[in-house]
Amino acid sequence: MVSGAQPAGWTDERVETLKKLWMEGLSASQIAGELGEGVTRNAVIGKVHRLKLSARAKPTNSTPRARPASRPAPRRVASPSSGLSGMGGAAKMRSSMPRPQSVGATALAHDPQLEADLYVAPAVAELFIPEDKRLNLLQLNEHTCKWPIGDPLTKDFYFCGQHSLETGPYCEFHSRRAYHQVDKKRR
DNA sequence: CCCTGATTCGC
DNA sequence: GCGAATCAGG
User: Which positions on strand C lie below 7 Å from a protein C-beta?
Assistant: First the structure.
């Protein structure tokens, strides 16, 4: 009867691995995955902090990070308040408005020199919405995708109108467009 | 939506 | 000490 599993034993070995990987810049989730099951991203972060390892890089900047002057005190042991809770959906919507893609045909001149300097223009591939599916502002409702298409100043402006997800104002396609990727700018 | 780390607090 | 839950930013 040997215990074949060590769910959460921060042995020196694991701590070493943790330190190493953390210093190498791996993300907490990656380290957690590397360490094996039973170790979650939170566990890694928690350990990292306990070890005072946070801040793997402080070249010349004492950025105390946003120090919450007052802690919001995340109520644990929340008691059921009369069973009435905030209705699903809606919730907190991070600021992020999609930029309507201009479907205007852009004439591109064949300039090798310029072409070499510029990166490939992002394809404006959009979903083609049949006219009978297009919606104007007044036709939108709780279940229509509110992704704007076209130029609001012209007549060829309309909203996607597909069935929207419960988790947001857009259909799946545009929901992805709204957030996912497209924001990999980073300094 | 996905992700990241940071913090708190019950265990 | 541990880590889930939560917060907050990208």
Answer: 1-10
C1' of C5 to CA of A74 (Å): 8
Nucleotide nearest to A187 (CA to C1'): C10
pTM for this predicted structure: 0.51
Dump pLDDT digits (tens) for A133-157.
Answer: 899 989 998 889 888 888 778 888 8
SS3 content of chain A, % helix, strand, coil (to 5): 25, 5, 70
User: A136 or A179: which carries more pLDDT confidence?
Assistant: A136
CB neighbours of residue A150 within 10 Å = 19
- CB neighbour list of residue A32: distance below 8 Å, 6 or more residues apart: A39, A40, A41, A43, A44
